[in-house]
Amino acid sequence: MDATSHTFSANARTALADVKLQRALDRLAEGFPARRRDAVARLPEFDALRDAAVAIKDHTILNLDRYLERFEAKVLEAGGRVHWCRDAAEARATILSICTRAKAKSVTKGKTMVGEEIAINDHLAANGLDVVETDLGEYIIQLRGEPPSHIIAPAIHLSKDQVADTFRKAHGTLPPARPLTESRALLEEARTVLRSRFLGADVGITGANFLIAETGSTVTVTNEGNAELTMTLPRVHIVLASIEKVVPTLEDAATMLRVLARSATGQDVSVYTSFATGPRRPGDLDGPEEFNVVLLDNGRSAMLEGELREMLRCIRCGACLNHCPVYAAVGGHAYGWVYSGPMGAVLTPALIGLDPAKHLPEASTLCGRCEEVCPMRIPIPKMLRHWRERSWQRGPSATRSRFGLAVWAFVAARPRLYRWATGAVAALLARLATRGRFAWLPFASAWTGTRDFPAPEGRGFVASWNRGERR
Amino acid sequence: MAETSPDVALFATCLVDAFRPSVGFAAAKLVEESGSRVVVPEAQTCCGQPAYNSGDRATATKIAKQVVDTFAPFAAVVVPSGSCAGMIKQHYPALLADDPAYAAKAKALAAKTHELLAYLVDVRKMTRCAARCSRTATYHDSCSGLRELGVKAQPRTLLKSVDGLALIEAPNAETCCGFGGTFCVKYPEVSTRIVDAKITDAIATGADLVLGGDLGCLMTIAGRLSRQGSTVEVRHVAEVLAGLDDRPAIGVAKTPPQG
Amino acid sequence: MSVARAAVLSSVRRALGARPSASGVEARLTEPPPGVIPARGRNDSVAMFLEGAARVGTTVDRAASAAEVPARIAAYLAERNLSTAIKLAPDPDLRDLPWAEAQLQTREGRGEDHDTVSVVQAFAAVAETGTLVMISGAESPTTLNCLPDTHIVVVHSRDLVGAYDDAWARLRARGALPRLVTWITGPSRTADIEQEILVGIHGPRRLHVVMIDDGQA
Ligand code: SF4
């Protein structure tokens, strides 16, 4: 998909004016954080599990090549295939060729953010394949031609009636007068439509939350059960996963899973967690004949190198989105690409380049709530500052905010000048303010557009104190 | 170190110095009540956060060194702001880690620097204040104080001892106010949506006074409240604790305007 | 091997730089260290399992013996006015139970679209979160877990373990992993429409467990 991250400010304004979206965001802010809090409260070992999960990932990342090789060997041993891909184009071509070789016409998909990242749907569709998303949220946004607005709840930005409209347009063969006001009716309609797609699919594509080196298994977590149908009914199963998803052992996967759902939705564990290892076995009555893992780098090995390495611990739980005041204000689409919220603000510049995504690291208050709730203890604010430094180093030096900062820095480095200048400005502003505040100030319209500017009291504290004033 | 002074140096912060000296006087009074002598070094300016958070590491480093030098002689440094104290405690050591002349000094400064409330309660073991204030207040936890320094219980401990004060917790007391330094002017609409949620939450408690420990947040909250025509007042927590809340609240005129 | 493989691995190695040669990888894989097991996973109590199951809407019934299972299932189906035609996993443990006596019509095989009720035996149950561990195999086709509206799982109380890790130990003891191991914790659900939690989006609308009380492991 084409990123619109470069127009973040305009995207944000559109989002703020969208009444339905704002209502959806309010629902999100009420729901997710409270559910996570309850789940964490039920598990006294939660923080110990976080520490263990961080240690597992750090160890794995430090030995990423070794664990990937072991993972590959185990997949082969189980009768599966592994396809290494350097970038999105290679992954798209690989997946298409697997489909072509299987003479596939119809493809079902489980939710995969890596799939969104490489825009696999468009590529397969352009090559004549009929691709359908089977996660309800993903299905809805696929029908609408939208990107996901949340990594775990892709259609969180929509209201019931918007979903109903979408279904009426898409499901043209159903009676137009059917009632679709209840969520239940929408669900039943999606169930029926998607059931026939599941049964007719030649290839199933899923993502993976984890890969297990010990056994060559891929781990997929859903609540709907769509991934199980996707990886069981079609002749060919393709798992699309980026290289940082690997963990060493089954026990390690269990530790990760104990923090994942609690952080994501506040469930103790998701409804379905499937560990897939190779294709159908002799004697099995169901399951795919072919099991493929597409292992994608697409920028991950570059992230290993420097300041962003810890970001590779991310398990895509979405907790940082759910607790972010900026995400809660503007939603996911404003971020303009696949990954949104705090994790998106770190990842997007790494994956599509800093220039088109330079707004995202700036559009944060650095409040630190993301780091506080992140199960993997990723220092997101530190990484946002890292991007800001990179922007600063390469940015044009003539913007107004840069000029303001330069003047301020010049003065701040000279205490006497600083004392005099701040004292003078404070006194002047205090004299000008009639009601203790300004409704408008020259050069400060970005503040006074929506807020009054509190007037200074009129003297400098440091100077007054050292003159002997005590209150 | 013979040149070390037993006095507590107050780092007022640039916002308090220029906008709200009342907070500086209140902080100094509280530190003195806790039994320490206060000095206000004349050479102090700003902690460098605006540069640091804008990605201008070079300027931030330069200012950090100046702060390190200014406050090196004192036994302790007290800051009436979570974010400026957090800058010194959490970020200076990393910022100056590669500078052999400053790495150790930055760590030493970080170790002896305290956010005001943390200093009073954790270091000086203060449990009560002599102040009186017949208001209903709610407390906003500013992000840096809360998450970088763990300031949460300390202001509440002292506020509970204030005679006549009713303290009501807002459910989202820990949510950001939308200030975020330059964020509030780079993305003013987003910032405003965030502060609106904060204000709605605070007003719903029935409080007529919003307190906090960081002037940046308080100016944002006050500025938006007054734009909305609200009469809810906003003050730094130190003003109430020191009994210096007879001054007009943030963004309120000295003498009430006519009409 | 492929060019891409070599390229990915070498850029990973380049980024990681010099490291100790082994750094515990082999040891971790051959002798997996135990994870942090929460207290709630440290006993295989039925009560803990029931608590987890109740939280997610899994219903649980108890049978004193395997022979009692058909009657318990018949009662469950009758109470909800559900079909008495069930698709049975081709599992010798289930095959010879007195289904006809309980007025149930059984067919064996994998799950099909038109099946409405399935009965499958679980490999294990995990007390920690009220989770069922289902494995694929000739005797337990995966489709039975994800196509029918009503999914009925039979589990022996001796197969109830405390933590996920205990289930892994049992699976390892059995040999290589089957094609699919699925932890199931409740019926299929979604919150994708206005965050309202609705059950039965793709797979089962109902998940019912009959636990045979035959003692602890
Ligand atoms: S950064 Fe942390 S909180 Fe955000 S999605 Fe990743 S793991 Fe979850």
Structure described in brief:
The complex is a heterotrimer of chains A (471), B (259) and C (217). Chain A has 471 residues and is of the alpha/beta class.
Could you characterize the architecture of this molecule?
The complex is a heterotrimer of chains A (471), B (259) and C (217). Chain A is α/β, with parallel strands linked by helices and 471 residues long. Among the domains of chain A are: 254 residues, Rossmann fold, CATH 3.40.50; 59 residues, no CATH class. Chain A has 24 helices and twelve strands. A six-stranded parallel beta sheet of chain A has the order 1-10-7-4-2-3, sandwiched between helices. In chain A, α3 crosses α12, α9 crosses α10 and α16 crosses α20. Chain A is globular and about 90 Å long. In chain B, strands 2-1-3-4 form a four-stranded parallel beta sheet, with helices on both faces. Chain B has a four-stranded parallel beta sheet with strand order 6-5-7-8, sandwiched between helices. The N and C termini of chain B lie far apart (61 Å). In chain B, 61% of the residues are buried. The longest helix of chain B has 17 residues. The mean pLDDT of chain B is 94. Chain C is elongated, with a radius of gyration of 21 Å. Chain C is α/β, with parallel strands linked by helices. The N and C termini of chain C lie far apart (47 Å). Chain C has a single domain, classed as NagB/RpiA/CoA transferase-like (Rossmann fold). The model of chain C has no long low-confidence stretch (mean pLDDT 94). The longest helix of chain C has 14 residues. Chain C has a six-stranded parallel beta sheet, sandwiched between helices. Chain C has a four-stranded mixed beta sheet with strand order 8-5-6-9. In chain C, strands 10-11 form a two-stranded antiparallel ribbon. The site of iron/sulfur cluster (SF4) has 13 residues of chain A, from α14.
